[in-house]
Amino acid sequence: MIAEQIQKLSVELPQGTTLVAVSKTKPNSAIEEAYAAGHRDFGENKVQELCQKAETLPNDIRWHMIGHLQRNKVKYIAPFVHLIHGVDSERLLAEINKQGAKHHRVIDVLIQIHIAEESSKFGFSFGEAEALFSQENQYENVRIVGLMGMASFTENEQQVKREFEILSAFYSEWKAKKTLTILSMGMSNDYPLAITTGSNMVRIGSLIFGRRN
Ligand SMILES: *Cc1c(COP(=O)(O)O)cnc(C)c1O
Question: What's the structural domain count of the chain?
Answer without folding.
Answer: 1
